[in-house]
Amino acid sequence: MSVEVLDPRFDAEPPYWRELRARAGLRGDWAWDVLRRQAWCARTPWYLTVLLDGSRPRGMVGAAWVGSRTRRHRFAVSGCGGRIGGLDLRAPGSSAFPSWWFADVGDDGGCRQLLSEYVPTVRRLLGPGLKGTLIRQVPEAALPVVDGRWRLVRETEPVARMSTEPFGGRDDWLASLPRRRRAHLRGVFARVEDDDSLTVEFLPGDRADAVEVAELLRVNEVKHRDVPIVPLPQFVGYLRCLLEQPDVFVLSYRDTETRRLLGATTVYDHPQWPLARAWSSLRVEDGGRPDLYFHMYGELVRWAIAQGKNGVVLGKKMSQVKASLGAELVPQYAAAIPVR
Predict the structure, then answer these.
(1) What is d(CA 83, CA 87) in angstroms, rounded to the nearest whole number?
(2) Which CATH architecture has domain 165-309?
């Protein structure tokens, strides 16, 4: 087995990367050009470690190095950012999925290989300065693998998954919901779809204006400044590259007369489980429309059914609202593990 450690900011796309993406089912945010822009826009250096049998990848792990020189107001610098630190295993664009993949995994989702292969490998590469690793998106079945002495394991926000496979259309999905939610959504759908001043479109990402979408997404980001580390704003260069990927779409709501973008969500396509990634809309007092958030879920369901998907991953946040719409809440855990 050989190992490659890649920094997307400086390293060219490896020849095996597109095949690996297809095998691992990695969505548009894992395209190499997108990874490069994401890495340049991050607070901490982000590295991709690939485990190879000959020239064939058998596993990969993406992780950020969090060291003594890491600051909230500072962007990533060359090198590890301090001699002492830890690895934060996090995906580059979404916290709904793990940042690792292995060719052969069991019910533990690859956590056993993380601890038996990846951690010892990076410990040899980085030396004694590596003091620990934080593994996010640990599935419930992997808890016996990651638990142990001196390890801290905590449940995090669940990931919502909306199954659409049982339904023949949006009305079938509506009929499966509790009576009050069903009545509410029928009212929402009627009001939005009878509004002649509103245009609703499901577009390939390259037909969207990245500047316009970024400005709208920043409206939603302002609402989430109550967290310990304030999210960075949407960077237009990153978003433009992301929207150019053939498996990225935008569901948009636009004022028919002024053509102003009132609401939008980005969707990362996948053969079975596409991800609805980022949603934002203008406030009503700023010219927006009410209830677009709930209408968006109906459009996602309709699109997923028409495309023959198993369902849509709805990510984190607003868990109880998503559960009321029929989504399954999949438990997720994080494990902080010291490295000796």
Answers:
(1) 12
(2) 3-Layer(aba) Sandwich (3.40)
